[in-house]
Design brief:
heterotrimer; A alpha/beta; B mainly alpha; C mainly alpha; A: alpha/beta; Rossmann fold; 6-stranded mixed beta sheet; 17 helices; 20 strands; B: mainly alpha; two-stranded antiparallel sheet; 15 helices; 2 strands; globular; disordered C terminus
């Protein structure tokens, strides 16, 4: 039993040995061992791209591990796991993307497991509702069972997903970032349920990259980094910063890059409000400055960015660019004014995945690459593409390859190339490292700093406090749609910032 | 009532529109709200409704089927020869044969879609051409009149002589329509398989992760559509009394429009049997009403087109989106 | 040779060599089996038949690349033809001069553009599904056309218009010249203009395209407007080929145009598609049909073979995709 400090743990719910998974030349998991005791509350920690999601997909039979893996579920050895087998063995997952059915009712979503099976059976909606109600009762939460799921806010959908896992009488539940969009009271309720489950012998694995609330309830934590196992540690005596070090492999003794903004004021936001999204936002952004904006999911960060980029219109307040008031009717106006926006959702909104790298890179500058008669000029396109790919050191095969073939880090560089080609004055970066390998993140932030040095005004939005702590000159804290605090990273400790944001 | 409005907003809207139009028509024309007219409306639209509920299942599962009307013609021809081969047959054998032939044609679609991962519109356009071409080739476009008498003679289920002496009657296709509606409703609302179809159309990846068999879903959806097409083909002769190879081609798009009008969504996960029925009925009532009002028959379709266009335009309208001026 | 191959596929799409191979195979088989296949007369008749389907296919192509559909193409073409026919009949019918023809043509193109623009606007600004919008437009236009013509034919056009439908210039059929000109125009539009670029991007991911600053709504309106204009050109050609206009003319071609697009490698999910492979696919279909015709089969067998042919090609593409996946994994 290698690297397992808790050898006195209860009988195993799950024991995986030598899990390896390669996707088209990219190693997602390499010789990972993972074990959970029955009734244990366990943490699976790692940054985005560390292989956590791949591991869950293997446990639940969505992916098959490469040959040579050892799989043992509740003492039984299996050569492979299928989704049906995983479910029968008592493994359930609450996916990060929830995997729910927006057109169906809350009751049907919660009691979905009772609808499965290849032999048709009659559906009793009364029983369906009873099942759903019982599951929600265990969460101490009340929801309208007949509501269409798609009409619920995201936090309530998360609750539905959790309730759905409870229905299937699982003995081992994986929760993939379960608390990301829950409020504190919802989180507390969830932790209470987890405790009950654990007392009844149900094991729970929290999969997360932010674990403050989870450390207090879990017994052990398994840390993954870059698809490899870092180790399995008891949570007793484990601190947030120690865990961060294990996850990133870097020490936070690392220097903050903050300094005083030298350039003139570029963007000034005055009392900007939009009902239900953000309220009374004011700040300034200078040329050459990297301004951090952090806060939990749902704090209104992305909504604010959308308004600054002209995608939505604020109800009140002013946006001034170089001292002049802006009336943005669409994001095309914003681009024309020199505002660029890197979306947090790179897969769906940042890039057009099936299309080529070159086409994505020139997407925002079609006018600039037009030549005689308004026709697109192949030479100008080629020159633009090669200039920016070189400038941002994007590693590609051919510019004609689909952009989806690139790694997350390189894809994000293509997004940056697309926007830099428009020669913006203001760059809005919304969680630019989501889905980017840990190793590639430093490269992205190096580029961000270089761009600031060239005089760009940059708003760096992130829910990862260490990112803004290390890479921004000032940090704004947004919560409940308002900016509630401002820090200077040079005069603040990371722990204090994290405590304030994640509280 | 409240929960009905919430669960079926499109159907409720459609129902209100249908009531309004019907009220208007019954005021404008004394012939509209008569037993004779209403029964003939039902008789003449039963086949469309049978197709519609078959197509509905495919749409709910996230696919589309263009081939069903042509498949119905193919089934008619196969039936003629099959009945001749066994020396006549009867209604039980008729339903068995028509359903089976239709099912088989639908399963061809499902097999091509699932086995070769071809999108359903490509497959069904191909089979549409293949079915129709082969049918016309082998039948040489001939009409067939010599049908078994049990098949071609009208089966009148109920009749009533009105005061003016004209007969109001309901024929077999109406009963079959009701049965098809009930069976489809039972399948999609009351069985686990039906709920899986909704789930599969709504979120295919989520359904796959939950362990739902995708090949099975495609087989059920297209098999059901094919089976309904076959039965609709069997019923069509109750109205035309003959089998004509190119009589049904072209109806597929009108049925599609009616089903979508009834709240089904291209892309899957939404739609109801009631909506199908109301969608078909709305189109039928409009045409019927215009006819009774003495409007030129050539103008019917124009008005129907406008109504469908208005319906889909307004059903997609989300006021919040318009007024908030999002840039999308 | 490999360099030439690569340049060919880069410029015109990876489907071209395969389709040319198919074309060669089909021609080979028919020249061995059908006696009159390899004759000038046969290829002449192919050249006269191709343009009608070809123009309608071009009208279908742009919406499909944008991830949509235009099911109203046939009746848009009919309505445009009807417009020209009305103008010609107003100005003397058989004796009409060139001016009425020009005015009628312009009006016909405007009718096509207007019906397309209306569809595009509903699709872009209301967000309704293109299949439904164009289906409703199809039903409307058919009704309107039948209302205006009472279901009958309109004929009586000046005899010189036959040149457009049946004449040749330097031995090349006029309809073919018209079609090739439109195909070249479409090729340039789709590969060398901002509009064409936007069409492809919208086809792959309309939201991401909008986020990147493309005016996706205006582009959608333009796509269907241009599609409508192309329908109008087809409608004018159909008028001069048949020397009459009837609503419903060419009805059977609607789904064949979709078939031709898919055969020509256009991605059914949108985002990818080129003109040249589609043109070659059209030639393959037309050659198949003329070969079968010479062997004594009728048009209906050709229709069936077209359908089976598309299934076969899709299966081959599926197989090819699996083989290349396999290779990538094996590497």
């Amino acid at each position: 039993m290698p690297r397992d400090p808790a050898s006195a743990a209860p009988p195993d719910a799950l024991r995986l040995r030598g899990i390896r998974k390669v996707f088209g030349g990219v190693t997602a998991l390499d010789a990972v061992d993972f074990g959970v005791g029955a009734g244990e509350v366990h943490c699976l920690a790692g940054e985005n791209g560390s292989g956590k999601s791949t591991l869950i997909k293997i446990v639940t039979g969505v992916y098959q591990p490469d040959p040579g893996a050892g799989i043992e579920i509740f003492g039984q050895t299996h050569t492979q796991i299928t989704p049906t087998l995983a479910r029968k063995a008592g493994i359930a997952v609450i996916w990060q993307d929830l995997a729910l059915f927006p057109e169906m009712t809350v009751a049907e979503n919660i009691a979905f497991e009772t609808l499965l099976g290849n032999r048709p059976r009659w559906v009793s909606y009364a029983r369906l509702r009873d099942t759903a109600r019982a599951a929600l009762a265990r969460l101490d939460i009340d929801l309208d069972l007949e509501a269409r799921l798609g009409d619920l806010p995201i936090a309530q959908r998360q609750i539905v997903a959790i309730a759905r896992a409870l229905v299937s009488d699982a003995r081992l539940i994986f929760m993939d970032e379960p608390t990301a969009s829950l409020t504190q009271s919802e989180t507390d309720a969830l932790l209470a349920v987890v405790r009950t489950l654990s007392d009844r012998g149900v094991a729970v694995v929290f999969v997360s990259h932010r674990l403050a609330e989870v450390l207090e309830i879990a017994a052990r934590v398994t840390v993954l980094r870059d698809g490899r196992l870092v180790g399995v540690y008891p949570t007793e005596g484990m601190t947030q910063s120690r865990l961060s070090e294990l996850m990133t492999g870097t020490s936070f003794a690392q220097a903050v890059t903050a300094r005083d903004a030298a350039g003139p004021e570029v963007l000034r936001i005055e009392n900007l409000s939009r009902a239900g999204e953000y309220d009374d936002i004011s700040f300034t952004l200078h040329a050459g400055e990297v301004l951090g904006l952090t806060g939990l999911i749902g704090a209104g960060r992305t909504e604010l960015c959308h308004s600054l980029f002209g995608m939505t219109r604020p109800d009140r307040g002013r946006i001034l660019l170089n001292g002049e008031g802006l009336q943005l009717r669409s994001n095309r106006d914003a681009v024309a004014q020199g505002i660029a926006y890197v979306s947090e959702d790179r897969l769906a909104l940042g890039l057009i995945q099936p299309q080529s790298i070159a086409d994505n890179a020139v997407l925002s500058v079609l006018k600039r690459i037009s030549g005689a008669g308004g026709l697109l000029s192949a030479q100008k396109k080629e020159a633009t593409v090669s200039h920016w790919l070189r400038e941002l050191a994007v590693k590609i095969g051919l510019p004609e390859d689909p952009v989806s073939t690139l790694s997350g880090g390189n894809q994000q560089r293509v997004v940056l190339a697309k926007w830099l080609a428009t020669e913006p004055k203001v760059l809005l970066l919304d969680c630019p490292t989501v889905g980017v390998d840990v190793g590639a993140r430093a490269g992205i932030f190096r580029i961000v700093r270089q761009l600031a040095d060239r005089g760009l005004a940059i708003l760096l939005v992130s829910d990862e406090v260490p990112e803004v702590f290390l890479n921004a000159d000032r940090v704004l804290h947004m919560a409940g749609g308002r900016i509630i605090h401002q820090w200077d990273p040079r005069q603040t400790r990371l722990q204090d910032m994290e405590a304030a944001v994640y509280a | 009532m409240h929960s009905f409005l919430r669960a079926y907003p499109t159907e409720a809207k459609l129902f209100v529109v249908l009531i309004l139009i019907s009220t208007g028509l019954s005021l404008a024309s004394p012939d509209f709200l008569t037993l004779v007219n209403v029964t003939s409306l039902l008789n003449n639209n039963a086949v469309n409704v049978i197709w519609a509920v078959g197509l509905l299942v495919v749409l709910i599962a996230g696919g589309i089927d263009i081939s069903f009307a042509v498949a119905a013609s193919v089934v008619q021809y196969l039936c003629v020869y099959a009945f001749a081969a066994i020396g006549g047959g009867n209604w039980a054998i008729g339903f068995l044969f028509a359903g089976t032939f239709g099912l088989a044609l639908g399963l061809i679609n499902a097999f091509l879609i699932h086995q070769f991962r071809i999108i359903s519109i490509v497959v069904t356009i191909s089979t549409f051409n293949a079915f129709f071409g082969l049918l016309m080739f082998f039948s040489s476009g001939r009409f067939l009149y010599n049908l078994p008498s049990w098949w071609s003679s009208r089966v009148i289920l109920w009749e009533y002589q009105t005061a003016s002496g004209t007969w109001a009657e309901l024929i077999l296709p109406v009963a079959v329509m009701a049965a098809a509606m009930f069976a489809t409703w039972a399948l999609i609302r009351r069985t686990t398989t039906g709920r899986q179809l909704y789930a599969f159309g709504d979120n295919p990846e989520g359904a796959r992760r939950a362990g739902i068999s995708i090949g099975r879903m495609q087989a059920i959806a297209f098999g059901w559509s094919g089976m309904m097409a076959g039965i609709a083909g069997l019923m069509q002769t109750q109205i035309t009394k003959e089998v004509v190879p190119n009589a049904l081609i072209g109806r597929e798009l009108e049925v599609l429009a009616a089903v979508v009008l009834g709240g089904a969504r291209l892309g899957g996960g939404r739609g109801s049997v009631l909506g199908c029925f109301l969608g078909v009925l709305l189109v039928a009532v409009t045409q019927n009403g215009l006819n009774l009002l003495g409007v030129s028959p050539y103008a019917f379709k124009m008005v129907v087109g406008i109504i469908i266009l208005l319906a889909i335009s307004t059903s997609n309208l989300d006021p919040s989106r318009l007024f908030r001026g999002a840039a999308r | 040779m490999t360099a030439l191959y690569r340049r060919l596929t880069a410029a015109f799409g990876p489907e071209v060599p395969g389709l040319l191979g198919f074309l060669a195979l089909v021609i080979l088989v028919f020249s061995l089996t059908a006696p009159n296949f390899l004759t000038g007369a046969n290829f002449g008749s192919i050249a006269f038949q191709l343009p009608e389907l070809g123009l309608l296919t071009l009208a279908m192509l742009m919406p499909i690349i944008s991830g949509g559909f235009n099911l109203a193409i046939i009746y848009t073409a009919n309505m445009a033809g009807l417009t020209l026919a009305f103008v010609l009949n107003q100005y003397g019918g058989v004796d009409a001069g060139i001016m009425p023809f020009l005015i009628g043509t312009i009006l016909a193109l405007l009718v096509g553009a207007a019906s397309g623009a209306a569809m595009g606007a509903v699709i872009a600004y209301i967000g309704a599904h293109p299949i439904l919008v164009s289906l409703a437009m199809m039903i409307f236009l058919r009704g309107l056309g039948e209302f205006l013509t009472k279901g009958g034919d309109i004929s009586g056009f000046p005899p010189w218009m036959a040149t457009l439908g049946h004449g040749t210039v330097a031995g090349i059929p006029v309809p073919l010249i018209l079609f090739l000109a439109c195909a070249v125009l479409w090729h340039i539009l789709l590969t060398h203009t901002r509009h064409g670029f936007s069409v492809r991007m919208i086809g792959s991911n309309i939201r991401a395209a909008a986020y990147s600053g493309l005016h996706t709504k205006r582009t959608l309106v333009l796509i269907y407007t241009l599609s409508g204009v192309m329908c109008a050109i087809a409608g004018i050609l159909m008028l001069s080929r048949f020397n009459s206009v009837r609503v419903g003319h060419g009805e059977a071609l609607l789904l064949v145009t979709v078939l031709a697009c898919f055969l020509g490698g256009v991605d059914p999910f949108g985002g990818f598609g080129r003109v040249l492979p589609v043109v070659i696919a059209l030639i393959v279909l037309q050659v198949l049909s003329s070969g079968l015709n010479l062997m004594g089969a009728n048009q209906h067998l050709s229709t069936a073979v077209w359908g089976l042919f598309l299934v076969g090609v899709m299966i081959l593409r599926w197989g090819a995709g699996r083989i290349s996946d396999h290779r990538r994994k094996g590497r």
